[in-house]
Amino acid sequence: MEYRELGSTGEKVSVIGVGCWQMGGNWTGMSRERAVKAIHKAKELGINFFDVAPIYGLGEAEKLLGEAVSDFREEIFIASKVGLRWQKKFSPEQRDLTPESMRWEIEESLKRLGTDYIDLYQFHWPDPNEDIEKSLQLALELKQEGKIRYIGLSNFSVPELDKANNYTDIASNQVLFNALEHDPLQYHGIPLEYRTRSEIIPYCEENNISVIPYSPLCQGLLTDSFNIEDWDEDDVRNANPKFKGDWLETCQNKVDQLKEIARDYGRPLVQLAFNWLRAQPAVTTIIAGTTNPDHVEENAASLEWELSETDLEKIDRILA
Ligand SMILES: NC(=O)c1ccc[n+]([C@@H]2O[C@H](COP(=O)([O-])OP(=O)(O)OC[C@H]3O[C@@H](n4cnc5c(N)ncnc54)[C@H](OP(=O)(O)O)[C@@H]3O)[C@@H](O)[C@H]2O)c1
Q: Which ranges constitute the DSSP H helices of 73-224?
């Protein structure tokens, strides 16, 4: 396994991590027993970074992760999130970074994870109704109390990130980024206030903040087995407008060209997708969403090879 430093924390995290959204259910193929095996396989391969959030499966993903890692909790890095309250009436996914809500959320997460602390506590989305400094102040209190170790952000634009980083040390920003989506404008229909490659990456590189790309496989599109026909009716991806319009058709042609490059290396498309991200500045750990131990192994094996400079340029031309 290859490790990189998370921001300026001094902590070494694996370049391939595991994203646990899928473990909350509503993703085709999810089985609890297999997901636990996937986590154990990851640990065996030296993967030490697991990304989760309270909202994934409305608490279920945190519970599953906590149970699966209970025998080796101290040896791994749990990155969870705060600020999306699904319990609120009339508003299923309300952003809330008020100190009162954050205080309540941390206790719920710790209970579900069966742990005394969360290694990286990430603000899931900016809350336009709350002063970021108040939320950060609360996070600093949690740090002092030993309930969290480091503060991270997610989906924050450069001005928001800069304001936060001037207030206290920010370890990371988790953003939408993959070989097909360099500067995406929206995520699941939610407009994005940031451009990843042209804005977030240079800022983070300059300020030693880790970029944690989410959706590294574009929710499965960057795999050799992508087929919408196979999805269960309640698969969350059915609600992603991206998979309905012209975008998918345009991408399919690019995906075919990327597959050809991967084939020249004798490697699957997923490994090309991870290696493209691994070659980008500031990218520290890539959270591959999977519930399958064989896929964990295949994803970790991306680190056995690298894309040449010529192919990185060729990929940029395909994507331009
Ligand atoms: N901060 C945010 O706002 C945010 C938003 C979205 C996601 N995230 C985080 O990012 C993580 C990953 O992103 P994502 O959920 O969008 O999904 P993703 O990682 O882009 O893709 C996940 C899909 O790829 C499949 N897959 C994984 N490895 C594979 C392999 N080797 N071969 C074939 N298929 C493979 C998975 O199926 P199998 O289970 O069958 O492997 C799953 O269907 C999430 O789990 C979550 O932790 C964060």
A: 99-113, 132-144, 158-167, 201-207
